Amino acid sequence: MGILMLACVLVVGVCGIWAETKVPQVDIYTRHPIEGGKENVLICCARRFHPPIIDITLKEDGKVLQGIKELDLSFDRDWTFWKVKFANIMMGKGPYTCDVKHYGQENPTSYQLDMM
What is the pTM of this model? Predict the structure, then answer.
């Protein structure tokens, strides 16, 4: 029993070394060119992160948007993950942000849509 326990600890330890934490790369953009007063889709894409523990929130002027939808969590060939969230919006003054909290970060990071 002791040898089995030691083997399990070694396997978990070796896997832990190989499982590198990678903070996500994040892009925030719209589906169509930005025009005030026009309907659009705000999109936030977090990619190349590991492990797959992530929380993404879309906001307008600091308030969480309603009707946020998401695509299934997916992975790339290098076993990093990506996640997309999006919401239909009526383009106003903003600011529009994507707040991302990943397992590899102590605090959420806020990414702002470039309105130009």
Answer: 0.82
